[in-house]
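Example 416.
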Amino acid sequence: MNIEKYSIGIGDRFGRAGAAQMRAVRSAEALGTVVVPVWNKSFREHSLIGTRPDDVRAEADAAVRGAEWRHPYHVDADHIGLKTVDAFVDASDFFTLDVADFIGHAAPDAAIATFVSDMRSLRKTVNLRGVGAPLEVTDAMLERVGRQYLHAVLEASKTYRHVAERRGSRDFIAEVSVDEAAEPQQPWELFFILGALARADVPVQTIAPKFSGKFLKGIDYVGDVDVFAREFEAHLEVVEQAIAVFGLPPSLKLSVHTGSDKFSLYPAMRSALKKHGAGLHLKTAGTTWLEEVIGVALSGASGFRVVARVYREAVGRFDELCKPYATVVEIDRSRLPSPAAVEEGTAEQFVRLLRHDRGCQDYSVDVRQLMHVAFKVAAEMGDEYRDALGSAAQTADRCVTDNLFERHIRPLFIDA
Ligand SMILES: [Zn+2]
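Predicted structure in complex with zinc ion:
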Protein backbone atom coordinates (compact mmCIF):
# COMPACT_ATOMS: atom_id res chain seq x y z
CA MET A 1 0.00 0.00 0.00
CA ASN A 2 1.57 3.27 -1.13
CA ILE A 3 0.60 6.71 0.00
CA GLU A 4 -0.30 9.02 -2.86
CA LYS A 5 1.63 12.16 -3.67
CA TYR A 6 -0.69 14.59 -1.88
CA SER A 7 -2.64 13.73 1.22
CA ILE A 8 -4.30 15.64 4.02
CA GLY A 9 -4.88 14.52 7.58
CA ILE A 10 -8.35 15.50 8.65
CA GLY A 11 -9.36 15.11 12.24
CA ASP A 12 -12.98 14.97 13.18
CA ARG A 13 -13.54 15.26 16.92
CA PHE A 14 -17.26 14.53 16.86
CA GLY A 15 -17.30 12.19 13.90
CA ARG A 16 -19.85 14.03 11.83
CA ALA A 17 -17.82 16.26 9.51
CA GLY A 18 -16.88 13.49 7.07
CA ALA A 19 -19.25 14.52 4.29
CA ALA A 20 -18.23 18.19 4.56
CA GLN A 21 -14.56 17.17 4.50
CA MET A 22 -15.14 15.01 1.44
CA ARG A 23 -16.66 18.00 -0.36
CA ALA A 24 -13.34 19.79 0.10
CA VAL A 25 -11.28 17.01 -1.52
CA ARG A 26 -13.91 16.61 -4.24
CA SER A 27 -13.51 20.30 -5.07
CA ALA A 28 -9.78 19.74 -5.49
CA GLU A 29 -10.41 16.69 -7.65
CA ALA A 30 -12.73 18.73 -9.86
CA LEU A 31 -9.79 21.07 -10.49
CA GLY A 32 -7.57 18.12 -11.41
CA THR A 33 -5.67 17.60 -8.13
CA VAL A 34 -6.15 14.47 -6.08
CA VAL A 35 -5.60 15.07 -2.38
CA VAL A 36 -6.21 11.86 -0.50
CA PRO A 37 -8.10 12.20 2.81
CA VAL A 38 -6.62 10.53 5.89
CA TRP A 39 -8.73 10.56 9.04
CA ASN A 40 -6.33 10.89 11.93
CA LYS A 41 -7.17 10.63 15.60
CA SER A 42 -4.65 10.04 18.34
CA PHE A 43 -4.96 7.97 21.48
CA ARG A 44 -4.99 11.27 23.38
CA GLU A 45 -7.97 12.55 21.37
CA HIS A 46 -9.89 9.30 21.65
CA SER A 47 -9.45 9.25 25.42
CA LEU A 48 -10.41 12.91 25.89
CA ILE A 49 -13.52 12.57 23.78
CA GLY A 50 -14.59 9.01 24.52
CA THR A 51 -14.45 7.56 20.99
CA ARG A 52 -12.81 4.40 19.61
CA PRO A 53 -10.73 3.79 16.49
CA ASP A 54 -13.59 1.71 15.03
CA ASP A 55 -15.79 4.82 15.09
CA VAL A 56 -13.31 6.65 12.86
CA ARG A 57 -13.17 3.72 10.44
CA ALA A 58 -16.98 3.58 10.22
CA GLU A 59 -17.21 7.31 9.64
CA ALA A 60 -14.47 7.34 6.99
CA ASP A 61 -16.02 4.43 5.09
CA ALA A 62 -19.45 6.08 5.13
CA ALA A 63 -18.15 9.51 4.09
CA VAL A 64 -16.16 8.04 1.21
CA ARG A 65 -19.10 5.94 0.01
CA GLY A 66 -21.44 8.90 0.23
CA ALA A 67 -19.09 11.04 -1.84
CA GLU A 68 -18.49 8.35 -4.48
CA TRP A 69 -14.76 8.92 -4.08
CA ARG A 70 -12.78 6.77 -6.53
CA HIS A 71 -9.35 7.33 -5.02
CA PRO A 72 -7.71 5.88 -1.91
CA TYR A 73 -8.36 7.11 1.63
CA HIS A 74 -6.90 6.07 4.93
CA VAL A 75 -7.47 5.93 8.67
CA ASP A 76 -4.45 7.03 10.69
CA ALA A 77 -3.59 5.70 14.14
CA ASP A 78 -2.02 9.00 15.06
CA HIS A 79 0.91 9.26 17.46
CA ILE A 80 0.83 5.68 18.66
CA GLY A 81 3.51 3.63 20.32
CA LEU A 82 3.81 0.03 21.51
CA LYS A 83 1.67 0.79 24.56
CA THR A 84 -1.24 2.37 22.71
CA VAL A 85 -1.34 0.72 19.29
CA ASP A 86 -3.40 -2.41 19.94
CA ALA A 87 -6.84 -0.78 19.84
CA PHE A 88 -5.97 0.70 16.41
CA VAL A 89 -4.65 -2.40 14.68
CA ASP A 90 -7.81 -3.44 12.84
CA ALA A 91 -9.40 -0.04 12.24
CA SER A 92 -6.35 1.71 10.76
CA ASP A 93 -4.24 1.25 7.66
CA PHE A 94 -1.90 4.16 8.40
CA PHE A 95 0.19 4.13 11.57
CA THR A 96 2.05 7.14 12.91
CA LEU A 97 4.86 5.68 14.99
CA ASP A 98 5.70 8.45 17.43
CA VAL A 99 9.17 7.99 18.82
CA ALA A 100 9.99 11.56 19.85
CA ASP A 101 10.22 10.58 23.52
CA PHE A 102 13.05 8.15 22.78
CA ILE A 103 15.34 10.74 21.20
CA GLY A 104 18.45 11.35 23.26
CA HIS A 105 18.17 8.05 25.12
CA ALA A 106 21.19 6.07 23.99
CA ALA A 107 20.75 2.68 22.38
CA PRO A 108 23.01 -0.17 23.61
CA ASP A 109 26.70 0.36 22.73
CA ALA A 110 26.78 -2.71 20.52
CA ALA A 111 23.84 -1.44 18.44
CA ILE A 112 25.53 1.93 18.02
CA ALA A 113 28.78 0.29 16.97
CA THR A 114 26.99 -1.75 14.29
CA PHE A 115 25.17 1.37 13.08
CA VAL A 116 28.48 3.24 12.75
CA SER A 117 30.12 0.45 10.80
CA ASP A 118 27.07 -0.02 8.54
CA MET A 119 27.02 3.68 7.69
CA ARG A 120 30.75 3.92 6.98
CA SER A 121 30.21 3.03 3.34
CA LEU A 122 28.33 6.31 2.94
CA ARG A 123 31.39 8.45 3.27
CA LYS A 124 31.74 8.87 -0.46
CA THR A 125 28.12 9.87 -1.03
CA VAL A 126 27.59 12.59 1.52
CA ASN A 127 27.66 15.55 -0.79
CA LEU A 128 24.04 16.07 0.19
CA ARG A 129 22.09 18.37 -2.07
CA GLY A 130 20.22 21.06 -0.20
CA VAL A 131 22.34 20.85 2.91
CA GLY A 132 25.01 23.42 2.06
CA ALA A 133 28.65 22.50 2.67
CA PRO A 134 29.67 18.86 2.05
CA LEU A 135 29.23 16.73 5.15
CA GLU A 136 32.34 15.61 6.97
CA VAL A 137 31.27 12.09 7.96
CA THR A 138 33.49 10.58 10.64
CA ASP A 139 32.98 7.71 13.03
CA ALA A 140 32.61 10.23 15.84
CA MET A 141 29.85 12.02 13.96
CA LEU A 142 28.01 8.79 13.18
CA GLU A 143 28.31 7.77 16.79
CA ARG A 144 26.78 11.07 17.91
CA VAL A 145 23.87 10.54 15.51
CA GLY A 146 23.51 6.97 16.76
CA ARG A 147 23.45 8.04 20.39
CA GLN A 148 20.86 10.68 19.68
CA TYR A 149 18.49 8.80 17.36
CA LEU A 150 19.14 5.06 17.19
CA HIS A 151 17.06 4.18 20.23
CA ALA A 152 14.08 6.03 18.69
CA VAL A 153 14.58 4.24 15.37
CA LEU A 154 14.71 0.83 17.06
CA GLU A 155 11.53 1.67 18.94
CA ALA A 156 9.80 2.56 15.65
CA SER A 157 10.96 -0.75 14.26
CA LYS A 158 9.55 -2.65 17.25
CA THR A 159 6.15 -0.99 16.89
CA TYR A 160 6.19 -1.50 13.14
CA ARG A 161 6.87 -5.24 13.52
CA HIS A 162 4.21 -5.51 16.21
CA VAL A 163 1.58 -3.97 13.91
CA ALA A 164 2.67 -6.18 11.00
CA GLU A 165 2.40 -9.31 13.16
CA ARG A 166 -0.97 -8.38 14.58
CA ARG A 167 -2.35 -7.58 11.13
CA GLY A 168 -0.64 -10.55 9.55
CA SER A 169 0.60 -8.29 6.77
CA ARG A 170 2.93 -5.41 6.01
CA ASP A 171 0.36 -3.84 3.72
CA PHE A 172 -0.13 -0.57 5.56
CA ILE A 173 1.41 2.89 5.58
CA ALA A 174 4.04 3.65 8.18
CA GLU A 175 4.74 7.19 9.26
CA VAL A 176 7.51 7.98 11.72
CA SER A 177 7.04 11.15 13.73
CA VAL A 178 9.58 13.04 15.80
CA ASP A 179 7.75 16.37 15.61
CA GLU A 180 7.08 16.51 19.34
CA ALA A 181 10.81 16.36 20.13
CA ALA A 182 12.42 19.14 22.14
CA GLU A 183 14.77 20.27 19.36
CA PRO A 184 14.35 20.51 15.56
CA GLN A 185 16.30 17.99 13.49
CA GLN A 186 18.75 19.33 10.95
CA PRO A 187 18.20 18.12 7.38
CA TRP A 188 21.45 16.11 7.44
CA GLU A 189 20.29 14.45 10.66
CA LEU A 190 17.05 13.53 8.93
CA PHE A 191 19.13 11.84 6.24
CA PHE A 192 20.77 9.54 8.80
CA ILE A 193 17.50 8.94 10.66
CA LEU A 194 16.01 7.73 7.37
CA GLY A 195 19.10 5.60 6.76
CA ALA A 196 18.76 4.06 10.22
CA LEU A 197 15.05 3.36 9.59
CA ALA A 198 15.88 1.62 6.31
CA ARG A 199 18.52 -0.44 8.10
CA ALA A 200 15.96 -1.37 10.78
CA ASP A 201 13.61 -2.55 8.03
CA VAL A 202 10.94 0.13 8.52
CA PRO A 203 9.56 1.02 5.06
CA VAL A 204 8.69 4.52 6.16
CA GLN A 205 6.44 6.43 3.74
CA THR A 206 5.94 9.67 5.61
CA ILE A 207 8.35 11.28 8.02
CA ALA A 208 7.38 14.11 10.36
CA PRO A 209 10.42 16.05 11.56
CA LYS A 210 10.31 18.89 14.01
CA PHE A 211 10.89 22.12 12.12
CA SER A 212 12.34 25.25 13.63
CA GLY A 213 9.91 27.94 14.77
CA LYS A 214 6.68 27.28 16.63
CA PHE A 215 3.81 25.15 15.36
CA LEU A 216 1.00 26.00 17.74
CA LYS A 217 -2.51 24.57 17.58
CA GLY A 218 -4.96 26.36 15.34
CA ILE A 219 -2.91 29.51 14.73
CA ASP A 220 -0.34 30.68 12.20
CA TYR A 221 3.36 29.81 12.26
CA VAL A 222 5.43 31.72 14.81
CA GLY A 223 8.98 32.17 13.55
CA ASP A 224 11.05 33.30 10.59
CA VAL A 225 9.25 32.25 7.40
CA ASP A 226 12.44 32.48 5.30
CA VAL A 227 14.36 30.22 7.68
CA PHE A 228 11.50 27.71 7.56
CA ALA A 229 11.38 27.88 3.75
CA ARG A 230 15.09 27.01 3.44
CA GLU A 231 14.79 24.22 5.98
CA PHE A 232 11.68 22.78 4.31
CA GLU A 233 13.34 22.70 0.92
CA ALA A 234 16.47 21.07 2.36
CA HIS A 235 14.30 18.40 4.00
CA LEU A 236 12.59 17.75 0.64
CA GLU A 237 15.97 17.26 -1.02
CA VAL A 238 17.17 14.98 1.75
CA VAL A 239 14.07 12.79 1.44
CA GLU A 240 14.61 12.48 -2.30
CA GLN A 241 18.23 11.40 -1.77
CA ALA A 242 17.40 9.04 1.10
CA ILE A 243 14.99 7.16 -1.18
CA ALA A 244 17.78 6.61 -3.69
CA VAL A 245 20.62 5.90 -1.27
CA PHE A 246 18.81 3.69 1.24
CA GLY A 247 16.22 2.05 -1.02
CA LEU A 248 13.28 3.47 0.90
CA PRO A 249 9.79 3.45 -0.70
CA PRO A 250 9.60 5.89 -3.65
CA SER A 251 6.40 7.27 -2.08
CA LEU A 252 8.35 8.54 0.96
CA LYS A 253 7.51 12.18 1.66
CA LEU A 254 7.41 14.75 4.43
CA SER A 255 4.52 15.00 6.86
CA VAL A 256 3.83 18.34 8.50
CA HIS A 257 2.10 18.01 11.86
CA THR A 258 0.00 20.72 13.46
CA GLY A 259 -0.10 21.85 9.85
CA SER A 260 -3.45 23.55 9.83
CA ASP A 261 -3.67 27.32 9.74
CA LYS A 262 0.01 27.86 8.90
CA PHE A 263 -1.12 30.30 6.24
CA SER A 264 2.12 32.28 6.11
CA LEU A 265 4.07 29.11 5.23
CA TYR A 266 1.89 27.72 2.44
CA PRO A 267 3.20 29.90 -0.41
CA ALA A 268 6.81 28.86 0.26
CA MET A 269 5.81 25.22 0.73
CA ARG A 270 3.78 25.28 -2.49
CA SER A 271 6.64 26.63 -4.54
CA ALA A 272 9.14 24.14 -3.07
CA LEU A 273 6.78 21.22 -3.78
CA LYS A 274 6.40 22.40 -7.36
CA LYS A 275 10.10 22.99 -7.87
CA HIS A 276 10.99 19.48 -6.67
CA GLY A 277 7.89 17.64 -7.87
CA ALA A 278 7.60 16.44 -4.29
CA GLY A 279 4.61 15.11 -2.39
CA LEU A 280 3.39 16.11 1.05
CA HIS A 281 1.17 14.98 3.89
CA LEU A 282 -0.37 17.83 5.87
CA LYS A 283 -1.92 16.98 9.22
CA THR A 284 -4.78 19.11 10.39
CA ALA A 285 -7.29 18.15 13.05
CA GLY A 286 -8.56 20.82 15.39
CA THR A 287 -9.19 23.32 12.63
CA THR A 288 -12.32 21.33 11.70
CA TRP A 289 -13.61 21.34 15.28
CA LEU A 290 -13.11 25.11 15.46
CA GLU A 291 -15.10 25.60 12.26
CA GLU A 292 -17.89 23.53 13.76
CA VAL A 293 -17.88 25.74 16.86
CA ILE A 294 -18.17 28.79 14.62
CA GLY A 295 -21.09 27.15 12.83
CA VAL A 296 -22.87 26.36 16.11
CA ALA A 297 -22.31 29.91 17.41
CA LEU A 298 -23.76 31.43 14.24
CA SER A 299 -26.71 29.05 14.04
CA GLY A 300 -28.98 31.02 16.38
CA ALA A 301 -29.45 32.08 19.99
CA SER A 302 -29.45 28.61 21.51
CA GLY A 303 -26.37 27.57 19.54
CA PHE A 304 -24.51 30.62 20.75
CA ARG A 305 -25.52 29.90 24.36
CA VAL A 306 -23.96 26.41 24.07
CA VAL A 307 -20.72 27.83 22.67
CA ALA A 308 -20.59 30.53 25.36
CA ARG A 309 -20.93 27.76 27.96
CA VAL A 310 -18.03 25.83 26.43
CA TYR A 311 -15.98 29.02 26.66
CA ARG A 312 -16.97 29.67 30.30
CA GLU A 313 -15.98 26.12 31.31
CA ALA A 314 -12.77 26.32 29.30
CA VAL A 315 -11.66 29.49 31.08
CA GLY A 316 -12.46 27.88 34.44
CA ARG A 317 -10.55 24.71 33.60
CA PHE A 318 -7.67 26.43 31.83
CA ASP A 319 -4.78 24.44 33.37
CA GLU A 320 -6.43 21.06 33.05
CA LEU A 321 -7.30 21.57 29.38
CA CYS A 322 -3.94 23.00 28.37
CA LYS A 323 -1.81 20.42 30.16
CA PRO A 324 -1.96 17.60 27.55
CA TYR A 325 -1.06 20.22 24.91
CA ALA A 326 1.65 21.99 26.90
CA THR A 327 4.21 21.95 24.07
CA VAL A 328 1.81 23.11 21.35
CA VAL A 329 -0.26 25.93 22.83
CA GLU A 330 0.89 29.29 24.17
CA ILE A 331 -1.99 31.26 25.63
CA ASP A 332 -1.75 34.60 27.41
CA ARG A 333 -4.46 34.18 30.00
CA SER A 334 -4.61 37.88 30.77
CA ARG A 335 -5.78 38.61 27.24
CA LEU A 336 -8.81 36.29 27.39
CA PRO A 337 -12.13 38.13 27.66
CA SER A 338 -14.22 37.17 30.67
CA PRO A 339 -16.96 34.57 30.12
CA ALA A 340 -19.51 37.20 31.24
CA ALA A 341 -18.34 39.61 28.55
CA VAL A 342 -18.71 36.87 25.93
CA GLU A 343 -22.20 35.98 27.16
CA GLU A 344 -23.29 39.61 27.07
CA GLY A 345 -21.96 40.08 23.55
CA THR A 346 -23.27 38.67 20.29
CA ALA A 347 -22.41 35.49 18.42
CA GLU A 348 -20.83 37.60 15.69
CA GLN A 349 -18.55 39.29 18.23
CA PHE A 350 -17.37 35.96 19.58
CA VAL A 351 -16.80 34.60 16.09
CA ARG A 352 -14.63 37.63 15.29
CA LEU A 353 -12.43 36.66 18.25
CA LEU A 354 -12.30 33.02 17.24
CA ARG A 355 -12.13 32.89 13.46
CA HIS A 356 -8.62 32.71 12.00
CA ASP A 357 -8.83 35.91 10.03
CA ARG A 358 -5.51 37.71 10.15
CA GLY A 359 -7.10 40.83 8.70
CA CYS A 360 -9.61 41.17 11.54
CA GLN A 361 -8.56 43.42 14.42
CA ASP A 362 -10.61 41.44 16.94
CA TYR A 363 -9.05 38.05 16.10
CA SER A 364 -7.48 36.57 19.24
CA VAL A 365 -4.83 33.86 19.09
CA ASP A 366 -5.50 33.30 22.79
CA VAL A 367 -9.24 32.64 22.44
CA ARG A 368 -8.58 30.46 19.40
CA GLN A 369 -5.99 28.25 21.10
CA LEU A 370 -8.10 27.90 24.23
CA MET A 371 -11.14 26.84 22.19
CA HIS A 372 -8.89 24.44 20.29
CA VAL A 373 -8.22 22.45 23.46
CA ALA A 374 -11.79 22.90 24.78
CA PHE A 375 -13.27 20.03 22.75
CA LYS A 376 -13.11 17.96 25.91
CA VAL A 377 -15.69 20.28 27.50
CA ALA A 378 -18.00 19.93 24.51
CA ALA A 379 -17.60 16.15 24.61
CA GLU A 380 -18.59 16.11 28.29
CA MET A 381 -21.72 18.13 27.50
CA GLY A 382 -22.90 15.06 25.60
CA ASP A 383 -26.19 15.47 23.80
CA GLU A 384 -26.40 19.15 24.56
CA TYR A 385 -23.40 19.84 22.33
CA ARG A 386 -24.14 17.10 19.80
CA ASP A 387 -27.72 18.33 19.36
CA ALA A 388 -26.54 21.90 18.91
CA LEU A 389 -24.07 20.68 16.30
CA GLY A 390 -26.81 18.67 14.62
CA SER A 391 -29.10 21.70 14.39
CA ALA A 392 -26.23 23.82 13.09
CA ALA A 393 -25.22 21.24 10.50
CA GLN A 394 -25.80 23.43 7.45
CA THR A 395 -23.74 26.37 8.69
CA ALA A 396 -21.10 24.19 10.32
CA ASP A 397 -20.62 22.00 7.26
CA ARG A 398 -20.15 25.01 5.02
CA CYS A 399 -17.53 26.41 7.41
CA VAL A 400 -15.70 23.06 7.48
CA THR A 401 -15.62 22.65 3.70
CA ASP A 402 -14.61 26.24 2.95
CA ASN A 403 -11.87 26.22 5.56
CA LEU A 404 -10.31 22.98 4.32
CA PHE A 405 -10.59 23.74 0.65
CA GLU A 406 -10.13 27.50 0.29
CA ARG A 407 -7.64 28.06 3.09
CA HIS A 408 -5.66 24.81 3.16
CA ILE A 409 -5.93 22.61 0.07
CA ARG A 410 -6.04 25.38 -2.53
CA PRO A 411 -2.99 27.41 -1.43
CA LEU A 412 -0.91 24.32 -0.62
CA PHE A 413 -1.75 21.81 -3.34
CA ILE A 414 -3.39 23.68 -6.19
CA ASP A 415 -2.44 27.33 -6.64
CA ALA A 416 0.01 28.09 -9.40
ZN1 LIG B 1 2.10 15.40 15.60
